[in-house]
Design brief:
Elements (H helix, E strand, L loop, with lengths): L1 E2 L5 E4 L5 E4 L7 E2 L4 E3 L3 E5 L7 E9 L2 E6 L5 E5 L14 E5 L2 E7 L2 E6 L7 E5 L5 E7 L2 E7 L17 E3 L2 E3 L11 E3 L9 E3 L11 E7 L1 E3 L5 E2 L4 H10 L5 E7 L5 E5 L5 E3 L6 E10 L2 H40 L2 H10 L6 E2 L2 H7 L6 E4 L3 E8 L2 E8 L6 H12 L9 E7 L2 E7 L7 H4 L10 H21 L3 E3 L8 E3 L5 E3 L6 E3 L29 H16 L15 H10 L12 H5 L1 H14 L10 H8 L5 E5 L4 E5 L2 H13 L3
Parallel strand pairs: 16-25, 27-31
Antiparallel strand pairs: 1-2, 2-3, 4-13, 5-10, 6-7, 7-8, 8-9, 10-11, 11-12, 13-14, 14-15, 16-17, 18-19, 20-26, 21-25, 22-24, 23-24, 23-26, 28-29, 29-30, 30-32, 31-32, 33-36, 34-35, 37-38
């Protein structure tokens, strides 16, 4: 028995012929030189510490290397593309992993290579317990994630939120039908939402008369391989209700193509999606009404029918009264409309809905979306504009116009400029200047193959964000807390000058208020600890600013599920590295320019640590942050072990000339 230098354990017989080798029996890992043959599977472990197999596996399929979750039949959630030029029917025979590439062979004359990041160290590839196929490499005396083979959305993995769980921007919830007061599903564990949900009443084939379909709009499912074509929506639903093995159906409607009805015999994680013009997707989950609910429903129906006749008389009287009231109120409707505009001198340009629909070509080109609505590109004359269509706005016209007047009166070089607005019927739209380089996240996460930003540009962006927030916090007539600072809300112009967006949709705080109590809002990963107590001040923006600074200097998300389990949360790593004086490990390695300015980068991280303190009163004001960035004030870092502040002047390592580099152009 011999262990080769490739890690293959080989058993030989007396004639030195191979009797058995470990490479022929893969578990969840491929080593360099190891092949996955047709019929073999890589099966994920239950967790990083539990090596028993879970229900996720990868194997060779007729259309490439595919990942499945076990059910009857198996449900695919990822497939690589088949080798170009191969005729249909020639199935792949093996896939071989080597440092720097993954080779799929179809037959002796055909093969294709999936490129992997080049490395000079040892690699291995593992199907992790969460379904990601990650390449690890040996670096700095530990195994680190080098690449994720499956470039798909985190919510597209079948077990990310367990069975029946709905994934939305990394958060897991249980299904709840719109306007329904009945809970058909409950969490497996209230404290662990990612474990999924379970039906409140188990589905029984003996009680098929009590089966119903729970409607979930704007929801999709990762597996669309089990489609039943030529069925309209009603036929799709009825077919599922008549077949007990069907647990749910997804119906996708596309005006420019065929509609699709997809069956599910077992329901794993669902995914919330944003509606797109001419395209919709709804999922219908099969649920079972309990006998008590069915009987109650029947009794309620009888009571309602009995009460209908009596209600008709009352309704007629109400209609007469309401009609008289509306006629009287309508006399003053037009006057109120003009009154609203007269109350706000200097109001920004007011656009009609038809005009904005024309400018945006029917809201056809979406630039992005956030918590307040979607943003669309448009053209006003020769100028490009960005139109934000607010979703779920419940403000009256006067309240909306008052808020627009407040937003429009705020002008600062580091705040996105409001051009105009639209308040028509229930529609609320805001028209902003167009920012050609888009949001900051596309430039620091390397998702669009952009070149790394140099250190001077990153410093200037950080300073611009600080100046915009300082203006909102300290220089406006009313103190404004943004409450949702993140890279997606930082926009860049042609010269990479940064401007804060969405500041007018935040909570306005009066100058005589030290705090404001409000419902939790914002984005996971950027929320300050005090959100848990609802004691909110503008210092929540300082905390979020600290998170954004760390993302800019490290070139990664604060919460990145593609990383190893212990490295998912950047801020946790930051606290550990800061205590051990190892901040240099967090510098963005994509940019050699960053490495050459490592002393200034470390000082920037220490400023972030100061902003990220759990005690909001110990965080600096944004005016103090600006002074630190411009080199006129020292930076304070928090020592978590002694709970004391340690002074560390910016010029200690870099001198006066480097302080100006840290601050960027003044």
């Amino acid at each position: 028995m011999v262990m080769t230098d490739m890690g293959n354990l080989v058993l030989f017989d007396q004639r030195n012929a191979t009797v058995w080798q470990s490479f022929d029996h893969p578990t969840d890992t491929l080593l360099p030189g190891q092949s996955l043959l047709k019929g073999m599977k890589l099966k994920a472990s239950s967790s990083a510490t539990n090596t028993t197999e879970n229900q996720l596996y990868i194997t060779l399929a007729p259309y490439g290397l595919c990942a499945y979750v076990e059910s009857t039949p198996p449900q695919p959630y990822y497939c690589s593309s088949l080798v170009p030029g191969v005729k249909k029917g020639n199935d792949p025979t093996n896939v071989t992993f080597m440092n720097g590439c993954l080779t799929i062979s179809v037959q002796s004359d055909y093969y294709d290579q999936i490129p992997l990041p080049a490395t000079t160290s040892t690699q291995y590839m593992t199907l992790d317990s969460d379904g990601h196929m990650r390449v690890y490499e040996w670096s700095d005396r530990k195994w680190r994630v080098n690449y994720d083979l499956m470039q798909i959305d985190d919510c597209a993995y079948p077990t990310v939120c367990g069975e029946y769980g709905i994934c939305s921007q990394g958060q897991c919830t249980c299904p709840l039908q719109n306007y329904s007061t009945l809970d058909y599903f409950k969490p497996v564990d209230e404290r662990k939402p990612k474990l999924g949900c379970t039906p409140t009443t188990e589905i029984s084939c003996q009680e098929i008369q009590h089966h119903r379909l729970l409607i979930l709009t704007d929801i999709s499912y990762f597996d669309n391989s089990h489609e039943v074509m030529n069925l309209d929506e009603d036929d799709c639903k009825q077919a599922c209700l008549k077949n007990c093995s069907c647990k749910a159906v997804m119906f996708s409607y596309n005006r420019s193509g065929p509609s699709r009805c997809t069956w599910m015999v077992k329901v794993f994680s669902l995914q919330a999606i944003q509606p797109i013009a001419n395209l919709s997707s709804s999922v219908y989950l099969k649920v079972q009404l309990s006998p008590s609910i069915s009987a109650s429903t029947s009794n309620k129906t009888k009571v309602m029918l009995g009460a209908t006749f009596g209600a008709i008389v009352t309704l007629v009287l109400l209609v007469i009264i309401v009609t008289l009231y509306l006629r009287r109120r309508n006399k003053y409707e037009d006057k109120d409309e003009e009154f609203d505009l007269d109350q706000f001198p200097g109001m920004k340009t007011r656009f009609s809905l038809d005009k904005l629909t024309e400018c945006t070509e029917g809201f056809g080109k979406k630039l992005g979306e956030g918590g307040f609505g979607s943003v669309f590109e448009g053209k006003l004359g020769e100028d490009r504009i960005a139109v934000k269509r607010l979703e779920g706005a419940r403000q009256g016209k006067k309240e909306f116009l008052a808020e627009v007047e407040t937003i429009g009166s705020i002008e600062h070089i580091n705040l996105v400029n409001l051009i105009g607005f639209c308040a028509e019927k229930s529609e609320r739209l805001l028209v902003y200047e167009y920012m050609p380089r888009g949001s900051l996240d596309r430039w620091i996460y390397y998702r669009h193959n952009n070149d790394p930003l140099d250190w001077c540009t990153r410093c200037r962006i950080i300073l611009d964000i600080a100046k915009g927030l300082c203006y909102l916090h300290e220089e406006c007539r009313r103190k404004i807390a943004h409450l949702d600072i993140k890279p997606q809300n930082i926009l860049l112009d042609d010269n990479f000058n940064a401007k804060v967006a969405d500041f007018g949709l935040c909570k306005l705080i009066n100058r005589d208020q030290s705090k404001v109590v409000t419902v939790m809002r914002g984005t996971p990963g950027y929320l300050a600890p005090e959100w848990l107590t609802s004691r909110i001040t503008e210092k929540v923006d300082v905390y979020s600013f600290g998170v954004v600074v760390m993302e800019i200097v490290s070139g990664r998300k604060n919460i990145d599920n593609s990383q190893a389990e212990e490295e998912v949360q950047l801020i946790h790593i930051l606290r550990e590295k800061e205590q051990n004086s190892q901040l240099i490990d967090l510098i963005d390695k994509h940019s050699g320019d960053m490495v050459s300015h490592q002393e200034e980068v470390i000082q920037m991280m220490k400023l972030a640590v100061w902003c990220l303190q759990n005690d909001s009163t110990r965080r600096p004001s944004m005016s103090t942050v600006i002074k630190v960035l411009e080199g006129s004030v020292g930076v304070e870092t928090f020592d978590a072990n002694s709970s004391m502040f340690v002074q560390d002047n910016l010029s200690t390592h870099s001198g006066p000339s480097q302080a100006s580099i840290l601050s960027g152009p003044r």
